[in-house]
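User: My collaborator sent over this chain with a note saying "see what the structure looks like." That's all I know about it. Can you take a look?
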Amino acid sequence: MAVSDGGPVFIKAIDGSGEFKDKHYIVGVLRDAIKEVGHEKVVQVITNNANVMKSARALIEVADTRFASVVIMLKRLKLIKRCLQAMVISEQWASYREDDVGKAQKVKEMILSDLWWNRVDYILEFTAPIYDMIRVADTDKPCLHLVYEMWDSMIEKVKVTIYQHEGFEDDEYSSFWSVVYDILIDCWTKNCTPLHCLAHSLNPRYYSTEWLSENSKRIPPHQDHEKCLNRFFEDVNILNVVKSEFAAFSEGRFPSPAVLTDRNKMAPARAEDLVYVHSNLQLLSRRNAEYINRDTKM
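Assistant: Without extra context I'll predict from the sequence alone. Here is the result:
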């Protein structure tokens, strides 16, 4: 993407499948993009903070992010638990006086506390479904059609973990779960678009008997109350046609696993064209007054 005083514009997507994505590859991609735009027009290049991006040295400044950083740090602490405990009971730790002695003692008490480590275990346990979902979504693999169901499953897994830890039955009230649930729903509300729901609805996997039988709470997408079609198609006549087509689609129920692999025939070039059009239409829509004033803006 390129951003100027006139606003952002999507330039292109690059199919990197089959490429070894080291710093040399990244530098080549960025160099080609800069040449395409014109080097005299480029004042800054912004990427994420992955190691390969840092190695490419195409940045003015590296910004810190909070991508699951707390969970990653706790995972690391648990991995080296014995080493940490050996460190704080060593003579070198006891004789260290250059830093705050009070902080050093507090760290020692925490590292040697079973209660503190139990809390770490609990945090990692109930955040594991959230962390795993983020990891799946933060890859180059297409997952738009999986996001809607992943959120549902993730929220249920977090609840089960918290309720088991607190010893509650499923229908009992947990104040901690209530707080966590509100945070998750708030995040989902901010990030969810009708596109996630529609992609979920058109995925044959979620109509299959095999998937539905794995959990008694699961229902096929056409029985879900999310009105994604209404949000996509405002024209009543078009909406009626779409609903009719969707009814015919959903009644098939796709019992055969082979159907899951037979439907997707989208080649990289076709996908790039669709992403180009979709992204720029979204960017252009933000310049309209309707984007700010309409209640159903995407």
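A starting point for your reply to your collaborator: Residues 114-137 form the longest helix (24 residues).
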